[in-house]
Structures are given as C-alpha cells and as structure tokens.
Amino acid sequence: MIRYSGVIYLALSVLVFRGSSAAGQIAVLGKKIHTMAGPPIENGAVLIRDGKIAAIGKADAVSIPDGFKVLRAEVVTPGLIDAHSVVGLTGIFNHPHDQDQLERSAPIQPELRAIDAYNAREQLVAWVRGFGVTTVHTGHAPGELISGQTTIVKTWGDTIEAAVIVETAAVAATLSPQAQKSDKGKSPGTRGKMMAMLRGELVKAQEYVKKRETAEAEKKPDRNLGLEVLARVLNRELPLMVTANRAQDIASTLRLAKEFNIKLMLDEAAESYLLIEEIKAAGVPVILHPTMDRAVGELENLSFETASKLRQAGIPVALQSGYESYVPKTRVVLFEAALTAANGLTFDQALATITIDAARILGVEARIGSLEPGKDGDLALYDGDPFEYTTHCTGVIINGQVVSESPQ
Amino acid sequence: MRNSLVLVYLIVALAGLRSSAQDNPLAFTGATIIPISGSPIENGAMVVHRGKIVGIGPSASVSIPADAQRVDATGKIIMPGLICTHSHIGGIGGADSSAPIQPDIRIYDSLNVRDSGFKRALAGGLTTLNIMPGSGHLLSGQTIYVKLRKAETVEDIFVRDAEGKPLGGMKMANGTNSMSEKPFPETRSKSAALVREQYIKAQEYRDKFARAAGDATKIPARDLAMEGLVEVLEGKRMVHHHTHRHDDIITVLRLAKEFNFRVVLHHVSEGWKVAEEIAKAGAPCSVIVVDSPGGKLEAAEMTFKTGGVLEKAGVLVAFHTDDWITDSRVFFRSAALAVRAGMSREGALKALTLAGAKMLDLDARIGSLEVGKDADFIILNGDPLSVYTKVTETWVEGQKRFDRSDPKDLLYAVGGYGAGRDQSPYMCCFDHPGE
Predict the structure, then answer these.
(1) pTM of the full predicted structure?
(2) What is the ipTM of this complex?
(3) Which residues in A lie closer than 8 A to residue B325 (C-beta atoms)?
C-alpha cells in the first residue's frame, strides 16, 4: 500500500491542477529572465496566451490582461530540455514490469518504437519535471547495437499522445562493449563484428529501398519494419544517435556516418575531447554524458571539462541525464549542467546545453528552447541561481499550464 | 649535464621542503576558518606542527612561532577534512557467495591503495573514510577506517588505536539487497532469524571464554567469525548497517537492543518516516543523497528531506558518498541538497565532518579544527555549499595530499585521459539491482 501512496497523491494533484488552470493564460514576472534568445532581461515579464508565449520584455512594457494568473520568481528560464534520457521507458521501481528500455532478444531492432513503451504517468517523469525539465528526448537505452527508436515528449500529459511532440526523433545505436554479447555464439562479440553488423544492416536497407522502388509490383520485397526505419536514416530524415565513449568507437562512428552519409548525433562520447578536430570536421553534434556519470569502464577517462572543450571548438553540445540501471534511477539534467558551469562553461553556455542548444540538436527549436513570442509556454521558475544546489525550482509551466508550484 | 644539475638542485630543494614541513610549524593566516566545533572565525589563523593542530583562532589571538612557515590564506575558507562514513573505493572485494554472514572477512585484505578512487577522494576534500564491503549479505565483513595518507601498502592508511590495532566496524545489511537464493534468506523474517542465530552463538562463545577463566583445557577453539561478532557484542566494533525501508530500520533497532550492539544506520531512505523512533533509540544516521528516488522498491520514497527531518528530531546525522554510487569529488553536494530540502547549514557541514567522526569513534582525533586534533583540513575558494566552489588543497596530518594547482592532481579532480588508471570499481548490486 505504502509504495502506491505517491501514485495516489500524484493522481489527486493532477485533478487539482486540471481544475485550477485550464486556460493557459499566465503572466510570469521575473527579476531575471534568461530568454536564451538574447541577453537576460532584468525585471521582465512573460505573457502566455492559449499555451503559447504572446509577449516578453521589460515588466513595465508588457501589460497583463485581466484574468491572467500571475506568477513571480527571482529567476526564469525556458523549460529545461533533457537531450537524452530513458525515463518513461525505465521506471522508478526497477522491476521487470517497469523496465522497457532495452529489448535483449536481438542485437538489431530499429523497429522498436519508444511511443509504444512510454509511460506518461511514470513517477520519474514527475521527478525531473519538479526541477524544471519540461521536455525529454527519451527512448531505448544504450546496450544493443541498434536498440530502437527515441521520441521527444513534454513531461506533462496522461498519455503518450498528449505528451509527444516528435514521435520518432532518432534511432538509437550503441558502439561500445556494452552492446557485445557474452553468450558464446551470439553476435556481436568484438568491435570489428559490431561495425560489420551495422554496415551489413545499412547495406541491407539500401538494397531494400532499391528493390522497393524499382522492382515490379509482384517482385517487391515484403514490408520490413526495421529496414523501413533504417531507410529513413539513410535518406537523412532521421538521425542515428550512436552511443560511443572510447576514442576508437567515436572514430568508428564518424567513419560509419561518412560511408552512408548519415545524419549523426554522438551520444555520451566520454573521450570526445581527444577527437575535437575530427568531430568538428564531420559537423556532428554531441549529446554529452552526464557530467557526474561514473568514471568507470568505458567512461573511466571522462572529464568535467569536456562540455567546455567541445563548446570552445564550436561543436554543438547538449547534456543528458542518460540511463541509470540502479540508484539513482535517473539523474536530473539541471544538476549535470550546473557542474559544467563550474568547469569551464559560462552560465549562459551551461544553460544553453539544456535549453536552446539541446532544442537545436534535436530539431525542435521552432517550438521550444528559448522564450520568444510564438514558442510554447514552457517555463521554469527558480528562487535563485538555478545551478546552485540550494536554490529551489518554485514553479514549472508547460504549454501555459502551471504543473508545479511546490518548491523542489 | 645542465639538466642533471637542475635535477640535483630540485631534489635538494624538495628534501629541504619536506624536512621543513615536518619540523617547522606551518601557519595559515587570513582565512575564514570553519572549525565545526564553534562558530566560523573571520580572519583566522591556524598553526599546525608535526601533524597536529597547535593553534587556532582569530589572527590577533593566535601566537605564531617565529620558525613557522607562513601561508597567506586570505580570501580562502579552511575547514576540517571531510569524513565519509560509507565508501567502497579501493577495488575491494568482501564476503563471497558462500554464506550470508561472514564476520571473519576483513575488507582491508582486498584493498588496492593505488586505486585512482583515492585520488578523486582527496580532490573532493575527503581525508578519512570508512571503507566497507557491500550490502549483498546480512553481514559482509569487517570495515576499515583509513586516512588518505601517502601509501605503499594498506597498512600505511590504517587508523589505529593506542595499541596499534587497525580500527574498523562491521558491515551489516537488511532488506532486499541481502536477500537471495539459499544459503541466503528469502524473506525479512529469515534475515533476522539468521542474524539472531549467529549473535546468540557468539554470546555463547564469549561466555565459554568467561567460564574457562583462563583454563587452557576449557577455552574454546579459536573461531575467526565468532571473534568478529564478539567484538561487536563487546562494543569494540560499531555495526554499520545498510537499511532503507522504515520497517527494516525498526528491525535493526530491535536487534541492536536485543544484543546490545552499537549501530549506525546507513542510507535510511525512509528514515523520515520513523525519525522519532530513531531519535528515541539514540541511533546515529549516515544518510545517502542521490539524484532521484527508486532503482529498487525500498528506495522509491527516498527524499532530499531526510537529513533535515532527522536533524529536527534530534538524531546525529552524517552523509556518505557510497562511492561508486556517488562520486567523492562532489561530496559537498550531498549536504547542499539536504540544505535545499530544509536542513540547517551548520548541521549539514557537521554532517560531513564531526558527525561522521563520532560515528567512527574518532571524534577525539578528527572532525573539527581544535588544538590537539589531527591536522586534517581542506582549503576552499568559496562557500562550501556552492557548486562553483573548488577544493584547492587537502591536507592529512600536516601533509599536503592534494593541490589543485598541480596538474597531476588536477587530472583526478576534473578527470581526463589517464585519470581512470589502476581503478577497479566495487560493483556490488550495481548490475543486479533489487535482488
């Protein structure tokens, strides 16, 4: 019983919020508003109408219509974006019934859709939302050569349909020993085999596309869900997000992307600081591992300063909460960005890794990532520097709805 | 030729420095000193000599010996070295899968002093650790209290008693981590029954010794496991008890009362539910702070509030890194997140220092900056609870063990290529959670 009390509480609070602020007409007054679309505004106001940002500027230049709910905060930022997480597919209890982040039955399964597994009511989603995270790029975890698709969701809504903003955002692949099989006879067992299998599958997808396009009707190959998805990767409609940490695995990833002219996102990339020139030349963005990730195994050489080194070189970089198999069950991207602000990035640069830069890398910057008229009314409110451990997130707004007012 | 001359000069210079560091007092002046045992001292001075603190107070009131080497620490903060009551660094391996209760295991027989985890711990400002085996057993072995001195072998880092015996506690656990297939318990009742059975056996073993009254024919044969448990029964070895759920916490208190053993409750994810009961039992708590609840059922209601709730109930509270669960380099963060959720700043800083010292029975030697105590201290460049603050130096018994301005040390402080060498993480329950 006890273990469900949190869920009941959550359900009740959903009802309360639904009742009180359905309209999405809100004004937020901030002593400092980090718009991420220009310098911060001191004593500013953000007006949200019908869920979208209608106006933003100095508080005395924005008139607040009657009936608008007014919230105040020391510091206001765009709703935070976690550029890669597994929440919603992985659940808080860590028991088989709430663990859908990794299908181990075969090494290559691009047909697995995150939207078919995402649990919008998962407590971990509510947890990260409480710190200001309003959008999460989530999906299948690293651990298989191609583990499945990812999706981009708002951290609000009772169903995936209510939460989703991009159904399939990327195809997740892993190029590290994590994806190797220890059982004898089950491939892949080595780095060489991993690349051979990935290349083989992409070649298969090329052939599949060719045959579907050119063969006569009765000779067309049967539909193949996995190859259909890879075909979208090959035509650059979907990026391939490859988790690779060792320098040689990152180099292999770049080689693969070049061979097949694939749109690539480097994921985790602990040793990316060793290949700055190569990554820059390839024009590839990096969704960097959590700053406080454990310096173990493939990540033993990770550095707190990698985000700063990538950014300095002009490589687009976003931060992620990543995937946790034990305790804690998820990280919070706000805290991971905070440590980059203490290790080489400026405050604005660090905030950008979890707002506008994350939005650009994920291709959703037209809707979210900065506070500008026309964009979604997603805001996070704080009672001080959001990166300080002792500051609280005092409010979270998603699509113009106040979804949290309890300091976290 | 020229190079070798430089080298010779360097060696001579270094030798000179070393001897002066040992023989001449060192005086740090101008710093804000947070002694923990009292209020912060603005413009403070601290004098250390031969590994001990020999003077501390406002600069004006501290007499600095004429032969002291002076260090201007203006604008810096000096506070005691941090104490982690629960760490798994050092590439350790404790009890194996042969039995759920193994009091004969000494974790120090497995410890690699060259593990890079020690370098990171120093970079985080840690000076004393309780290194323990994991929670996959009801009792996984004897823990070891270590100081992060320069070390060639594990003996170099022991904290010893007056007779030279290494000090440590006994690691126990209940709840789901220590439950498994036979010979491990499958239920909580069985867990408690197995523990009671062994402690009763130890009581009888102890009583046989007493009855023998020195008569060699009556003294029972030596039993290493029983010897370990008898040390617990006699209060010589503190029980460091992993426990999460509220009812598991109460079970620990029940067993501690039955066998009259001294216990520190570790993790206490649901300690906030039974704060009054813990306070009434007088049991100290070493609290874990992680980024989210969950990962297993019994940690699903973990909250940042636990430290503050226990503090208000009058419980002695410390934090721990549980390194590899959290990184020793960000140990301050655990305390800061507790402050975020209501704990006092003073209580949070004490929880990283003096409270931990008390839980290890070492508060007469470490945990605060007072005359006569070990010169274990750290220098910070700002507010200890700020994310932007850096530990610039870590000193153990008057020796500088970490210096952020030294590139070799900086590598471990921020990470980078080669920072992981010689490390071997302790992966108990990491790959197979919730079993």
Answers:
(1) 0.93
(2) 0.93
(3) 326-327
